[in-house]
Amino acid sequence: MSDSDAPPPDIHEKLNSQTPRFSVTSAVGGLGRAIGASRTLQQILGLQDPVPFARPPEVPRGLEEEFEEGLGEYGRERVMRVARLKGMGELAEISEEGESPVKKALRINPPRASEVGLSAVVGTRSTFLDDDAPSPTKLLTVRKRGASTSGEKTFGPPLTKARAEDNSGLPVLPVDAEALWKFKFPGNTHALLTILLNWSQVMWRFHNRLPDPKLLSIHPVFPYPVTVPLQRRLISVSFYDTSVEPHKEIRFLGPGDVAELTYNEVDTFSDQDKPSNKNTKNLAVHQRVTTGEGRWAYILIQGHKAAGGDTPPHVILAWHMSAMTNISTCLHTILPAGTSRIPRPAPSKPPLKRFSSLQNLGDLLGGSQRQFRQALRCASSSELPISDLTSLKPQDGAQTLKRTVLRFRKAGGVPLIEGFRVDVGAFRAWLDAVGRGQGKIIMWAEKEV
After folding, report:
1. Which structural domain range is residue 197 located in?
2. Where in this protein does the record put region Disordered (predicted)?
3. Strand order in the sheet with 236-241
């Protein structure tokens, strides 16, 4: 048989000299990644005990100097000069140039704040069918729920539930009880407050130097597109365990309990110049949770300073944004005491069903501070049918507050906590609930103008 009649060689066969030897290091690395992914999946499914989130990295040295150097890539000096001159012609010229030489090439769409002032959150927003998440577009001035006129049995938690006063306020400890706030348990993290406060200060300085959120997000000093930091002062906050019905309130902090109460969000990342962090430079944002990088949210609680004391009691609770699966916000108008009830509209045919839960605030402004605190803690389990909003007249002394509900339905990660002269164990039940994917936070703040 001639060579022309021979069958073609098998293209899948290679000579031994052309076949690279399989690296033992690559095999071990792949096996480790497979084991880690399997462990993470089992934690999310609840088959393994949850583990605390990795502590966020410290602010890299020289970060601010690198940020200032990177401003030159945007022609920052020219933008500042044009802003001072306020020349419309030059502003139009900059707009035609695209404001940034990389704008058209990268096609990056960084996260933006929503119309109601909420930051970008990993996860999906709650729909109107979620039983603790009223639609922010269906704002309703209501009082405590009245008896149903449809004759149909409602579902959900009871109208009222008993409130325990032993879980209210900040559990302050004496100075000589250091062992109680430094007690080791999953989530109690050393230097957590210092790290996150430093990140917030640095990122706020960056935002002040570069106010444009899009330009800030694509600055070359950041390994991934960041979002502007967030700080929101709160009136009260409640931590819940949703594994039972009605949801169990772990801790409530209301007006007068603490000197300062804020909700914050900030981006963190490691020093990319270190050899140990070279492999994390191209990681996706959702993959950075294993190294503690990414966007973090935390609630900072500072108690009242004692007479003659140097440092007031304080506690910080922090979690990675990937732990939050839902966020909803709405407005509630608190009516003064003695205000007449808003009449219910006539039921439609077929009878309306109650689809969601809406926290209704009772009599408070005309009463004492205790009544105000109790109104913030009380919640009903259903929403009244929407009445004619044009018939609702402004009430003298009424106050409208903003209510935000954070849901933690993703198991596997335990939030971090650190405190000083505060019984951090009082929050442990909430940390464990979030680790199981059964946690919730309700925050009250003043309405944004």
Report:
1. 63-446
2. 1-21, 143-162
3. 248-253, 236-241, 439-446, 399-408, 326-334
